[in-house]
Write a structure and sequence with these properties.
Layout (H helix, E strand, L loop, with lengths): L2 H20 L28 H4 L4 H5 L7 H4 L7 E5 L5 H10 L4 E6 L2 H14 L4 E5 L12 E7 L8 H11 E14 L5 H4 L2 H5 L6 E2 H11 L2 E10 L2 H10 L4 H8 L3 E9 L3
Parallel strand pairs: 1-2, 1-4, 2-3, 4-5, 5-6
Antiparallel strand pairs: 5-8, 7-8
Helix pairs in contact: 1-6, 7-10, 11-12
């Protein structure tokens, strides 16, 4: 599973999710099968945004969310700050960030999928926000100058990269001294069955590419970050595991017990030293 293979599969899967939303065929989901909330969206992506947040953004932005958390709610964004969302998808976290930083601030969204970028641009138009900009590119090669961003957010995307060290080095590069990372991601506790690591469907579905808590801390520190914190926001049990294992064609009876409590959505904080 090399980086190019992962990248192409991720691009195709997320492009299809964007097309579903654009065509009114239900919601995107972080798991292997996009589904609307009525059909039973997977436990990773469901119920992430409060009613007050959902009411101030276009419905398509909410339906295109493939995240595992709500980083903008936890990041404590301040008026006038510049925010960058890595893997911005349909733009929900960019639009929410744009509202929080206000007209004197700026919110960038970065995505490599044409269909998601088109959806995000339409959601921007509907929102009426003028301090939002979407960029095409890869999170391993951020198309912004060094030291230009106050805050980096991301929602269940870093785990999709096959080169996480490079992602974190790039995040460090574009942050201003004293800037911070505030991302939601899937994190692993303990050993993971090899069947899951081998599954491309689960990789794209936000599980198989996840790092352990220790690995996440080590990679952030190696990139230069300090004040590293990992706060669990949801821990998934066997019932949750059965859904994504079955969707990937794996036997939940033989594997589910091994993943009970091993995967969690977490809020990851870190700072670039001043």
């Amino acid at each position: 599973m090399n980086s190019e293979n992962v990248k192409e599969v991720v691009k195709e899967k997320y492009g299809e999710a964007a097309r579903r939303v654009a065509q009114g065929r239900g919601s995107a989901c972080c798991g292997t099968s996009p589904a609307s909330a009525i059909e039973g969206c997977d436990p990773i992506t469901s119920n992430l945004y409060r009613e007050g947040e959902a009411s101030v953004i276009p419905e398509e932005a909410l339906r295109a969310s493939l995240g595992c958390g709500n980083p903008t709610a936890l990041a404590q964004l301040l008026p006038g700050e510049t925010v960058l969302d890595l893997g911005s998808g349909g733009g929900i976290d960019v639009l929410l960030s744009g509202r929080r930083v206000g007209p004197t601030g700026k919110a960038y969204g970065l995505d490599m999928t044409d269909e998601m970028l088109a959806l995000a641009e339409e959601n921007k138009r509907k929102s009426g926000l003028t301090n939002v900009e979407f960029l095409k590119g890869e999170i391993e090669n951020i198309p912004l100058p060094a030291a230009t961003v106050d805050v980096i957010v991301s929602n269940c995307v870093i785990n999709l990269s096959a080169d996480k060290d490079r992602v974190l080095r790039e995040a460090f590069r574009v942050l201003k001294p004293g800037g911070r990372v505030a991302v939601s991601d899937v994190v692993v506790r303990g050993q993971v069955p090899p069947e899951i690591r081998r599954s491309m469907e689960l990789w794209v579905g936000c599980v198989a590419g996840a790092m352990s808590e220790g690995e996440y801390r080590e990679k952030l520190a190696a990139a230069g970050f300090e004040s590293i914190e990992i706060e669990p926001t949801r821990v998934y049990d066997v019932r949750d595991a059965r859904q994504f294992l079955t969707a990937a064609g794996l036997d939940p009876e033989s594997i589910a017990a091994e993943v009970d409590g091993k995967f969690m959505s977490a809020f990851v904080r870190a700072k670039r030293p001043r």
